[in-house]
ENR1 protein
Amino acid sequence: MWAYRTPMYMLNRIIHLQALVEIITNQTSLALDLLSAQSHQMRTMIYQNRLSIDYLLAEEGGVCTKFNSSECSTEIGDHSKTIKNIISNIRKLAHVPVRKWTSIVEKD
């Protein structure tokens, strides 16, 4: 009747929760890793497109002059290395190495 409150039951629940947290963390890390890679690729593509447009509009002064933009900037911050470091730290924190349990009773 009280089997769900036994120490073994509670230990199994903790192990189950630990496994779930590790799975969720790994999936979240993977998603962040993919988003970081995509962001880096998009940054490169945007910069290349901007250079192409500036080249085509060079006679007219480039994009900023053509469209009278007072706040014209081509700088897009690249935080992919920082994100990868954070992901690595998350994975290290979430991973719990497998432990070998030994009996407390010593054998002769």
